[in-house]
Amino acid sequence: MRPILMKGHERPLTFLKYNRDGDLLFSCAKDHNPTVWFADNGERLGTYRGHNGAVWCCDGIR
């Protein structure tokens, strides 16, 4: 296992969660932008925009 540095949030993280398959990592932070990353290389897949405050946690749909 090797550490991966994921740059993308501007405020502290509040939550991290892998999807069921373990290939995606979801991150929530106080910067209002939940983000999804490829777990193998830390590349950002996308950002969910539209929140007006800190996002404390998230959960995927099966």
TrEMBL record:
A GO term for molecular function: translation initiation factor activity
Record's keyword terms, sorted: Initiation factor, Protein biosynthesis, Repeat, WD repeat
Spans of repeat WD: 6-47
Keyword Protease belongs to the record: no
Cross-referenced InterPro entries: WD40/YVTN_repeat-like_dom_sf, WD40_repeat_dom_sf, WD40_rpt
GO BP, sorted A to Z: cytoplasmic translational initiation
One GO cellular component term: eukaryotic translation initiation factor 3 complex, eIF3m
Protein biosynthesis is among the record's keywords: yes
Segment forming the signal sequence: none
PANTHER family on file: EUKARYOTIC TRANSLATION INITIATION FACTOR 3 SUBUNIT I
Family: Belongs to the WD repeat STRAP family.
Protein name (record): Serine-threonine kinase receptor-associated protein
Record organism: Quercus suber
Gene encoding the protein: TIF3I1
